[in-house]
Design goal:
Blueprint lengths: L11 H5 L2 H17 L4 H5 L6 H14 L5 H6 L4 H5 L6 H17 L4 H18 L5
Helix pairs in contact: 2-4, 2-7, 7-8
């Protein structure tokens, strides 16, 4: 293999480095939500305890990236939009979620080319989840 070639990965799960790396990403995402004032609206939407959200996002991301289907094994199809309908999700919450996840990806060393790919996918999903016009 040429030194400049990158190994091919079958899934983003493999590319990111498996469950340990997804766990680190999820933990940093929620830590940042707690720490950064710029994510205050996003944090407020999550209630007082983040433990459940941390676990569920980790399980979801594992399967969404092509790894073990922890979430669907426990809860069935994610039905993301339906499960998030009780929460007001507008442009502000979408943008804070995306910025927080991007910061977490940067701080946990997600490879730049994977990070760009995930940012695009996260945007499409987050925008679809909006249930408020502003």
């Amino acid at each position: 293999m040429n030194i400049e070639e990158k190994p091919a990965f079958a899934t983003p799960f493999e590319w990111i480095g498996g469950e340990d790396r997804i766990k680190a990403l999820t933990e940093r995402f929620y830590d940042l939500m707690d720490l950064e004032p710029g994510y205050a609206a996003l944090r407020a939407a999550h209630g007082t305890d983040l433990a459940n959200a941390r676990q569920r996002l980790f399980w979801f991301l594992c399967g969404w990236m092509g790894g073990p289907q922890h979430y669907t094994e426990r809860f069935g199809h994610p039905m993301l939009r339906a499960r998030h309908l009780p929460f007001a999700i507008g442009i502000l919450e979408r943008d804070q979620w995306l910025a927080c996840m991007d910061q977490a990806m940067g701080e946990t060393g997600v490879p730049e080319d994977l990070r760009a790919r995930l940012k695009n996918s996260f945007f499409q999903t987050a925008d679809w989840m909006r249930n408020q016009t502003v």
